[in-house]
Amino acid sequence: MMAAGPGAPRGGGPVSVVLWLGILGAVLGTAQAAVYFREQFLDGGGWRKRWVSSESRPDLGTFQLSAGKFYGDPVRDRGLQTSENSKFYAISSRFKPFSNKGKTLVIQYTVKHEQKIDCGGGYVKIFSSDLDQKNLSGASPYYIMFGPDICGSETKKVHVILNYKNKLHPIKKPIRCKVDGYTHLYTLIIRPDQTYEVKIDNEVAALGNLEDDLDFLPPRKINDPAVKKPSDWDDRAHIDDPNDIKPEDWDEPEYIMDTSDEKPEDWDHAVHGEWSYPMVKNPLYKGVWKPRQIDNPNYRGVWPHPQIDNPHYSPDYNIYSYENIGAIGLDIWQVRAGTIFDNFLITDDEDYAEDFGDETWGETKDPEKEMNIRQAEEEQQRERVAEEEYFEQWLKKKQGGKRESQKDRTKKSPIGKEEL
């Protein structure tokens, strides 16, 4: 029998053995998680050695390390913050290249649009290891683009764009992003069975199959070109009412002559030609008459075109996989700066990513909101005090002016004791 090592359960009871095995399994499960990239910016200025700013154009915006105006923790919530309005930004970080073939790929990070962004990107891009970091730009080829994008009232979505055979394919499902000013956790999971999952704040926002939700391949089935719709198939849901008759007084011209107008006295026939009454909109015009619509008694519904296997379809079970994954970057445009990116993680373990999110974003999100609310209340209090001080000064000035005016009147017309 082997001697119990340090920390091993003492005693040979079945309960303690099961408990120990459970703990050991959990520890080993976490230890086996492959963490390809993790960045929390906990070492102050050390991030500048790991991240490379692009020099693809001279007017790119600069990133700064900041936790923002409000936060849950002044150190743990520090991240890369955009600092200049109406700028393109491009920065990237390299890591040891890997392939996700046969493995789950998890991409996760936090975004905080502290400035209540009106138009700008908050997404990340995953690149191959041959990325030219110094020349990173919108033209740089990438494997995956993922994250929120906001612009006006129309665009408030989460991008999921995958590169397949050098062509970019966006997800067909609409996924709405968060639009408040707080930090949010975004997670993309791509599995070897070609399913995917998008999580926001560790809650599922979308899931499905890559082949179904992105147009990587031709459709599996197509309409049979040899089959035509029967000539007697009526697919009109509504038809004209044969009993509806156009009213006799319906036909009126759209424009009529304005006979109230008169020919100008200086009208020159040689220059302007023959004068005629101008045309005006006819108030009696009712438009083109159309008979009312009724239900078609012969309606048979939409004709179901028979389907056949698409001869051009060929399954590809490696859509999900990429070779030589080796860099992550931010390549975005922002009208109003202030977004903070933090807690980057690339791993092959979904549970590890969820725990990492809970231990980072999960522990600081509530204190962050509390600080923001407290700051708002303090600002309101300062505004009230400022208004009261302004009113008091205005009142004193007003009263002082009245006293001066009364003194002036007394000097101009002095009053004797008897009159007083």
UniProtKB/TrEMBL annotation:
Location(s), subcellular: Cell surface; Cytoplasm, Cytosol; Cytoplasmic vesicle, Secretory vesicle, Cortical granule; Endoplasmic reticulum lumen
Listed GO CC annotations: cell surface; cortical granule; cytosol; endoplasmic reticulum membrane; nuclear envelope; sarcoplasmic reticulum lumen
GO molecular function annotation: calcium ion binding; carbohydrate binding; protein folding chaperone; unfolded protein binding
Keyword annotations from UniProtKB, A to Z: Acetylation, Calcium, Chaperone, Cytoplasm, Cytoplasmic vesicle, Disulfide bond, Endoplasmic reticulum, Extracellular matrix, Lectin, Metal-binding, Repeat, Secreted, Signal, Zinc
Basic and acidic residues compositional bias, start-end: 225-248, 362-387
Region (Disordered): 225-251, 358-420
Primary residence: other
PROSITE patterns assigned: CALRETICULIN_1 (PS00803), CALRETICULIN_2 (PS00804), CALRETICULIN_REPEAT (PS00805)
Disulphide bond pairs: 119-151
Protein name: Calreticulin
Protein source organism: Gallus gallus
